[in-house]
Design goal:
Mean pLDDT: 96
Structural class: alpha+beta
Low-confidence stretches: none
Number of helices: 10
Helix content: 25-40%
Order of helices and strands: HEHHEHHEHEEHEEEEHHH
Shape: globular
Strand content: 15-25%
C-alpha cells in the first residue's frame, strides 16, 4: 500500500506515526542545535533562511546527542519504509530543520530540489526519472505543512509549472498552481515525499520540522555528503539498522 501510494502520488502521509516518547527523545537535541544555529547564522536568518542542515555533524552536537539521533533515524519503522520506497538503497543523505522565516510576510516558493544542482534542464529531466531522493518529514508541532503537486515526481513540468517554478514570463515562484495539494501536518505525523517533485513549504504556526533524507546508493547523489555527518564504526555497532549509513560510507569510498 505504501509503495503504491508513493508511485501514484509521489508522497505518503502517515498520521500519528510517532509516539510522544519518540519525539521527546529527539526534540531537545533539535532545539539545542537550532539555538546554536540561530546564534551563528543571524544574518542569514534575517535574509530569509527557512531551513538549516547537517544536524548530525560531529562539530555541532555531542557524541551522545549524535548517537541518539542516529538511533532514531535507524529505527525499524522508518527504515522499513525507506527500504520499500528506495529501489537501490536506502542510503543516508542528510538532515534538515525547517522553520518559519523572520519576515512573516515572506512568500514561499515552488521548487524541485534537483533545480539546485549544477545541471542543465536536460540533465535534471534525466535525474527525475532515474534517481530517488526522499524527504522523511517529522513535524515537532502542528503546522500548515506543505503543498505538493501530486504525480510530478514521475513527470516533467507543464509550461505553467515550469514558468512558475523558475519565475519566467511574468510569473512568480509563489504563484498558485492549479494542481497543488495542501497537506497540514500535526505533531507525530510522518510525511514521506519525493525531493524531485514540485513542492513548497507552507509557513505559519509553530513550524519546526525535522527532515531525514534517504536516497539511492549512488555516488553521484552522495558526492556532497560530509563524512562528519555520519556515524563512525563504533557508533554503527550500536544502531538498530546501520545499513543506510554503511551504504553512504561505501558510496563515498567509491566516489
Amino acid at each position: 500500500m505504501i509503495r503504491e501510494d508513493y508511485q501514484k502520488n509521489g508522497y505518503v502521509l502517515r498520521r500519528d506515526f510517532f509516539s510522544e516518547t519518540d519525539l521527546t527523545t529527539i526534540e531537545p537535541i533539535l532545539c539545542r542545535f537550532h539555538e546554536q544555529w540561530m546564534e551563528n547564522n543571524s544574518a542569514y536568518y534575517k535574509d530569509g533562511a527557512i531551513n538549516s542542515a547537517y544536524i548530525t555533524h560531529a562539530d555541532r552536537l555531542s557524541k551522545l546527542d549524535r548517537e541518539t539521533l542516529f538511533k532514531f533515524i535507524s529505527m525499524d519503522r522508518l527504515v522499513t519504509i525507506a527500504r520499500d520506497l528506495v529501489p537501490t538503497g536506502p542510503a543516508f543523505m542528510n538532515t534538515q530543520l525547517f522553520f518559519n522565516p523572520k519576515d512573516h510576510a515572506q512568500k514561499n516558493y515552488w521548487h524541485r530540489d534537483i533545480q539546485y544542482r549544477p545541471d542543465d534542464v536536460a540533465k535534471q529531466q534525466k535525474l527525475l526519472c532515474s534517481k530517488t531522493v526522499l524527504h522523511f518529514r517529522m513535524p515537532m508541532a502542528d503546522e500548515p505543512g506543505i503543498e505538493l503537486v501530486p504525480g510530478t515526481h514521475a513527470r516533467w513540468d507543464d509550461t505553467q509549472e515550469f514558468e512558475t517554478r523558475m519565475g519566467k514570463n511574468g510569473r512568480s515562484s509563489s504563484d498558485t498552481l492549479p494542481g497543488g495539494k495542501c497537506l497540514a501536518l500535526k505533531r507525530g505525523d510522518l510525511l514521506v515525499f519525493s525531493a524531485n517533485m514540485i513542492h513548497r513549504g507552507l509557513y505559519g504556526g509553530d513550524r519546526f520540522a525535522f527532515d531525514v533524507i534517504f536516497c539511492d546508493t549512488d555516488p553521484e547523489l552522495l558526492e556532497f555528503v560530509d563524512p562528519k555527518c555520519l556515524p563512525g564504526s563504533k557508533m554503527l555497532e550500536n544502531l538498530p539498522n546501520p545499513n543506510a549509513f554503511e551504504a553512504t560510507w561505501e558510496a563515498i569510498k567509491k566516489g
